[in-house]
Amino acid sequence: MANNENKQQIDDNVQDAELLTDKKTAASVLKPVWIALAIVLLIGLAAGGWLYQQINSQQQQQAQHFSSIEDELSGLQSNSSQRQRQLQQLKEQLQAQSDKLDEFISRETLTSEELKRTWALQEIEYLLNVANQRALLAHDVEGAIRALEMADKQIQAMSDYRLHPLRALIAEEIMKLEALADIDTAGIAIKLQTAANHVQTLRVKKGPQVEFDESQPMPTAAETEAAWKQALDDIWQQLRSLVVIRHDQTGEAAVLVPEQRYFLYQNLRLQLESARLALLNADNENYQHSLQTAIDWLQQYFTGNQRDALLNTLKKLQDAQINISIPDISGSLNWLEEYQQ
């Protein structure tokens, strides 16, 4: 009985030992599997973290892209609003122009007679402007009268009784201009211009030339140093010979030698041009002064028949009194301008 129990215990111990051995064997076999599973798990976690970062980065980029798209949409909406306002303004302008066009079309079309009348009034206004310019700016009385007479003929050809006050004003202005002294301003200006153009042909009085004794021997080299004062005196005498002065029995003034004639001609021409300018400006004082200066120069510095003829012409021109007061002839022009408004 005891033997059986011992045997049974021995069998149990053997079975326990075998079970323990099997467990150790299974544990040694499963250990690499668990390690592999841990590695796989770690790799999965790393991959998940990286994937999360990528997804997060993409989400941020998409958010920025969406924000830029929203900004662009906002700008487009602003531009669209501005374009709509501009379009509305253009519509309003087009409507205003359309209204004006309709108003213009609704008006009565001008007839050919009315067009001719309008053109004739423009011509009359132009002639009246010319008359005022000739009278006030150029002091051309004759030219102003001719322009007024042409304007009067234009009005007469229109046969419009409404323009009779204008004809009355023009007739009054013509009468004022005709009451002025009859001065041929254009003729006098032409004579002065012709005289200035012929100044170069006048003959200048000549004084006695300084004579030098060429037979006198030149100083030698030895005498030059001792006679330097004499050399300076000779140079001074040569300089003085550029202008020769003489007094004749008639008491005429000094005369320039031929080398200086150019300046004398130019000065005389300048006086004649000054007289012509004063004539055109109706400046009698300067006109008389310039003519008198030219006459004095002709008598003192020139001689010959041409000089005498020019003197006679200038003395006759001195008798013309050009100091005239041009009347105001703008009344007809002002009346026409008010009439056309």
Describe the structure.
The chain has 341 residues and is mainly alpha-helical. The chain folds into three domains: 1-107; 112-180 and 328-340; 185-207 and 227-318, no CATH class. The chain has helices spanning 2-106, 112-136, 141-158, 164-178, 185-197, 221-224, 228-240, 261-280, 284-301, 305-318, 331-340; strands at residues 203-204, 302-303. A two-stranded antiparallel ribbon has the order 1-2. Helix 2 (112-136) runs antiparallel to helix 11 (331-340). It is elongated, with a radius of gyration of 60 Å.
Write the layout of secondary structure elements.
Elements: H1 2-106, H2 112-136, H3 141-158, H4 164-178, H5 185-197, E1 203-204, H6 221-224, H7 228-240, H8 261-280, H9 284-301, E2 302-303, H10 305-318, H11 331-340
Antiparallel strand pairs: 1-2
Q: Count of helices? A: 11
The radius of gyration computed from the alpha-carbon positions, rounded to a whole number of angstroms, is 60 Å
Overall pLDDT? 76
Secondary-structure element order, N to C? HHHHHEHHHHEHH
From the helix content, strand content and strand pairing, which structural class follows?
Answer: mainly alpha
State the major sheet: 2 strands, antiparallel
- Net shape: elongated
Low-pLDDT runs: 208-214, 221-228, 238-254
The amount of beta strand, in percent, is: under 5%
Please give the alpha-carbon distance between the first and last residues: 159 Å
Helix content: over 70%
